[in-house]
Amino acid sequence: MSFMKEVLEIIAKSLVEFPDQVSVTEIDNGESSLTLELRVADSDMGKVIGKQGRIAKAIRAVVKAAASRENKRVTVDIVQD
Q1: What is the mean pLDDT of the chain?
Q2: Residue pLDDT, tens place only, 29-39
Q3: Is residue 48 within 8 Å of 70, Cβ to Cβ?
């Protein structure tokens, strides 16, 4: 498990009501690009996104900072099943 995936999972699990339903999928887009798909329970979606997307923006900023340590470009997608 990559460091960025671990960071995203820890942050998401601390925010939601159902941490057992949090899942992060890693999609490799090439040499230095990576996409992390975050899935949470439907009822927790608002907690992860926040008002006007503020929490989602903060989560993306933290993961981006973690990715810069490894010289990677990371995109965080919050997906609903």
Answers
A1: 92
A2: 887 889 999 99
A3: no
- Report d(CA 38, CA 5) in Å as an integer: 9
pTM (predicted TM-score):
0.89
Element (H, E) at 76: strand 73-79
Whether the CB-CB separation of 48 and 56 falls below 8 Å is answered with yes
Q: Which residues pair with 23 in a beta bridge?
A: 39
Q: How many CB atoms lie within 10 A of CB 59?
A: 22
DSSP assignments along 28-66, one per residue: E-SSSEEEEEEE--GGGHHHHH-GGGHHHHHHHHHHHHH
List, in sequence order, every residue forming a beta bridge with 79; answer none if it has no partner: 39
